[in-house]
Write a structure and sequence with these properties.
11 helices, DNA-binding, five-stranded parallel beta sheet, alpha/beta, Tscrpt_reg_LuxR_C
């Protein structure tokens, strides 16, 4: 017989508010020791929960579809299906896909840029410390940027520099307002909403509205994709530090 769960008083009824549910995480890496280490680090945090593991991209895709996690840590190089193809398949087949962080050994890996173009929300180096790992998961879960601006500039210079065209850049500029262009430039520099607000002298809520406008007009899912688009359209030059003002 199925037992109905006990009903606790809600905050409106005078009861204590329910604590937020932990972020659900799936690990996809072909090295068991790496998965074990990641699980130990993340599992020690009360707001994080590892709900599944996969050793190949072929295993990861159906597992992610079934478990519907909030965040996936995806090794960029795996047998059968690599992290790039797995990312593409997840994003193409799930109406509300998770945020995906690709994990790599080297920040200048060509696979990293391809994964970001495929829709990953950011990347993390395998040598990153425990605090960086935990912070990365929390950042992407709330749709904040997880980019290393200098590394992305190097990647863009190597892999997207030849694609930049002035006509594409003009099209991009025409679609964004002056304020939205300023916000996008600061996003490419890796600034958070709070830092952008301070730089432009506006409130965080205003910046959030502008960021949402940039994403909508560019037709991208998150800040990372907006930054990649900015480089590929030639809106910012990958060989130089992006401007830090309007």
């Amino acid at each position: 017989m199925t037992q109905e769960p006990a009903t606790e008083p809600s905050a409106e009824q005078g009861g204590p508010p329910h604590p937020p549910l932990p972020l659900r995480i799936v690990l996809a890496d072909d090295e068991r020791m790496v998965r074990t280490a990641l699980r130990a680090i993340l599992g020690a945090e009360p707001d994080l929960e590892v709900v599944g593991e996969a050793s190949t991209g072929a295993e990861a895709v159906p597992l992610i579809r079934s478990l519907r996690p909030d965040v996936v840590l995806m090794d960029v190089r795996m047998p059968e299906i690599d992290g790039i193809r797995a990312t593409e398949q997840v994003l193409a087949t799930m109406p509300e896909p998770p945020r995906i962080i690709v994990v790599t050994t080297f920040e200048n890996d060509a696979y990293v840029y391809d994964a970001l173009r495929a829709g990953a929300s950011g990347f993390l180096l395998k040598r990153s410390g425990a605090d960086e790992l935990v912070q990365a998961v929390r950042l992407v879960a709330r749709s904040d940027s997880l980019l290393f601006p200098a590394a992305v500039r190097r990647l863009a210079a190597r892999h997207a520099g030849q694609r930049a065209a002035e006509d594409t850049a003009r099209l991009l500029r025409a679609r964004l307002s002056d304020r939205e262009r300023a916000v996008l430039r600061l996003m490419t520099a890796g600034l958070t909403n709070a830092e952008i607000a301070d730089r432009l002298g506006v409130g965080p809520a205003t910046v959030k509205t502008h960021v949402a406008g940039v994403l909508a007009k560019l037709g991208v899912r998150d800040r990372t994709q907006a930054v990649i688009t900015a480089y590929e359209c030639g809106f910012v030059r990958p060989t130089a530090a992006p401007p830090l003002g309007p």
